[in-house]
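Database export, one record per block. Field names are fixed; values are copied verbatim from the stored entry.
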Amino acid sequence: MHTMKLKEIIHTFERRVPKSLQEKWDYSGLNLGSPDHKVTSVLFSYDICKEVIDAAIKKRCQLIVSHHPYRMNATVNMDLDSYEGQIITRCIKNNIALYSSHTNHDASEDSLNIYYLRKLKLKDIKPLARAETKLFKLAVYVPCTHTNKVMNALFKAGAGHIGNYSECSFRTQGTGSFKGNSFTNPAIGKKMQREEVLEDRLEVILRELDLDTVLAGLKTAHPYEEVAYDIYPLQNKITSLGIGAFGYSQKGFTRTECIKKIKQIFKIKHLRFVPGPNKKYKTIGICTGSGASLINTALMNNLDLFITGDVKYHQAIHAKRHNLSIADVGHFHSEKESALLLKNIFASLFKSQLNYLIYKDLKDAFLTA
């Protein structure tokens, strides 16, 4: 089995699921471990608990990737005899790193929200509360003989994505001139002599988080010693990223059909349901976990039904009075598939370079009597 350094894994994963998407209160990312930690096997879990650590030790995993961070608040002092302290001690003794992808995963294009709406076969899926992600335009001047090489390097580094399209670019042709001094070693022409070269101005869009990687790829592929390029901040927004999601069903669901389908998808026997006046549910939204804070956002988007967990009584009454139906599937049941989705992301990124395991024995904290 191939061995990878943890920093390589994190760098690649966070280009797909940027940590910058996480909520301000969240603690996603590397919770415990060294960036130079060597990894061959990864255990995926919804939560971090002693049983998960035991499984990682038994299966000889060097990394646990969880949805929830092992801690949900800022801990300055750590009592090693506490539950959390014992987890840390066991991980250190057994050379296990902890990494979590929580609200940044929730806001990504690989989120549980999109996963479940697709299971409902909804169309035109959009984020419920859009995330702020900065975009830039890169314009670089390339001799025409090297345009394809540079363009491929930019695409490989993450540039050129617009919505559902990739490898997007634009080029115009012109004549570039330059004159190197006595310390230069020009790829074209001679030093101390002005040269004129037929060049393409190649333009691509990229995310802020990809900027360093794209520039490194550009400078490696470009033939010139001094690469001429411009970077422009854009007002454009990435519309596919954000917390929660909603979509549309042209046929719609009756209340009975909807309740049956939700129970089936989330694999639950019981469902808390706030009925609204609609006979058909066509515009349906979701925020897995604890999403009641988005009820007003759901109302602004004219949702017929909002699926989430952890809804309180007064939040339910507020939704009912404003004609919004709510399906509360519970925090655990709305997110328990997160380990599978994280595993699928890793498998698509790292293929057979790593060994992947999923911890499947976690149970809901609540018992339905």
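Remark 1: The mean pLDDT is 94.
Remark 2: The chain has three domains: 4-106+336-358, 112-129+243-329, 135-234.
End of record.
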